[in-house]
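Q: What residues go here?
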C-alpha cells in the first residue's frame, strides 16, 4: 500500500533527491524562503500559485506535489470518493485564528493519474474566505456546481450561477470567491504546461 504524502513532504523529498536547498529553491522559484519553510514543515499552502512556481523550479508537474501514487491507465473517481488533497489559505496570514474555516478545499479527481498535464478538482469555497488574486502559468476551466461564484479576472468581475462556466489564462491575476456570502462548490480543471 502506498504511503500518503502532503505537498510539503513531496517538496522536501524532491529537494533531497535533487540536492537542492530551501534557499536555492526560493531563489529559483521566486517563492519567499519563509513560505517554502512553512510549506515543508507544516503543510501550509497559501495558494496554488506558489506550488506551480515550486513545481516549475524543481522541473516536475504540479501533480507530482499533490499525488499519493500514480496509475498508468485511466483513473475513475466514484461519486463521493474524491481525495482531499489540500486546503489553500489564500491571502491569509499564518496567525489567522481559525484557518480550518477559511480558504479553498481542493478534492482531487485524478490524484493517481500518471504524467497528467491537467489537474481536475472539486473545490469547496467557504463564504468567509479571505483571498488575494493569484497568478501562475497555465489555464483554468471552472464549472459551477452549486452556489453563486464571483470570478475576479484582471480588473473585471464576473458572477456565475450553477451550470455556468469560465475558461481563462491563469497568468492574469485572478481569484474565485462566493458572490453572496454562501458556500460555493465548483469543478476546476487547471492546466500547467511542462
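A:
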Amino acid at each position: 500500500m502506498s504511503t500518503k504524502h502532503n505537498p510539503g513532504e513531496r517538496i522536501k523529498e524532491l529537494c533531497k533527491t535533487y540536492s537542492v536547498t530551501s534557499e536555492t529553491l526560493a531563489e529559483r522559484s521566486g517563492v519567499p524562503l519563509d513560505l517554502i519553510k512553512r510549506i515543508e514543515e507544516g503543510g501550509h499552502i497559501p495558494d496554488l500559485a506558489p506550488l506551480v512556481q515550486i513545481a516549475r523550479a524543481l522541473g516536475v508537474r504540479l501533480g507530482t506535489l499533490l499525488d499519493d501514487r500514480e496509475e498508468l491507465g485511466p483513473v475513475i473517481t466514484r461519486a463521493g470518493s474524491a481525495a482531499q488533497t489540500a486546503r489553500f489559505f489564500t491571502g491569509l496570514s499564518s496567525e489567522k485564528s481559525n484557518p480550518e474555516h477559511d480558504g479553498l478545499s481542493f478534492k482531487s479527481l485524478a490524484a493517481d493519474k500518471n504524467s497528467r498535464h491537467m489537474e481536475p478538482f472539486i473545490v469547496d469555497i467557504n463564504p468567509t474566505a479571505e483571498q488575494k488574486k493569484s497568478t501562475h502559468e497555465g489555464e483554468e476551466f471552472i464549472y459551477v456546481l452549486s452556489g453563486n461564484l464571483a470570478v475576479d479576472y484582471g480588473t473585471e468581475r464576473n458572477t456565475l450561477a450553477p451550470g455556468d462556466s469560465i475558461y481563462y489564462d491563469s497568468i492574469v491575476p485572478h481569484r474565485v470567491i462566493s458572490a453572496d456570502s454562501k458556500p460555493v462548490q465548483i469543478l476546476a480543471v487547471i492546466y500547467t504546461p511542462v
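A: Context that may help when evaluating the design: Residues 91-101 have pLDDT under 50 and may be disordered. The chain is about 25% helix and 30% strand.
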